[in-house]
Amino acid sequence: MNPNDKPKTLKQALAELTTLEQKPVLVSDWRHLRGWGVRARFLREHLLPSPSYMRSRYPGSSAGLLPFLYVHRALAGLARLSRK
After folding, report:
1. Residue 20 burial (CB count, 10 A)
2. Does residue 62 sit within a domain?
3. Measured between alpha carbons, how far is 75 from 4 in angstroms, rounded to an integer?
4. What are the pLDDT digits (tens) for 2-59?
5. Is 33 inside a domain boundary?
6. Are 73 and 54 in contact (CB under 8 A)?
7. Which of residues 7 and 68 earns the better pLDDT score?
8. Is 18 inside a domain boundary?
9. Which of 5, 27, 47, 52 is paired with 39 by a 20 to 30 Å CA distance?
10. Which residue range forms the structural domain that includes residue 66?
11. Which residues contact 17 (CB under 8 A, 6 or more apart)?
């Protein structure tokens, strides 16, 4: 650990672990899908989850912020993938 790095909180450590565990599972799931229709649905479900999921993931956010939360989710996901 770099001396300038702040120690991770439990939430940050769990989020990182979850991301590391999910990536191989997602790749494996993708490889086992047959047909572009099924793959398109898989992508849609992971890139654009339901509004109810987004509200549960970001509690206290108003419905008007939902489009911005989707953008935030996508950018945060890209940032996590680029660090790995």
Report:
1. 11
2. yes
3. 25
4. 455 555 666 555 555 555 556 666 777 778 888 888 888 888 887 888 998 888 888 8
5. no
6. yes
7. 68
8. no
9. 52
10. 51-84
11. none
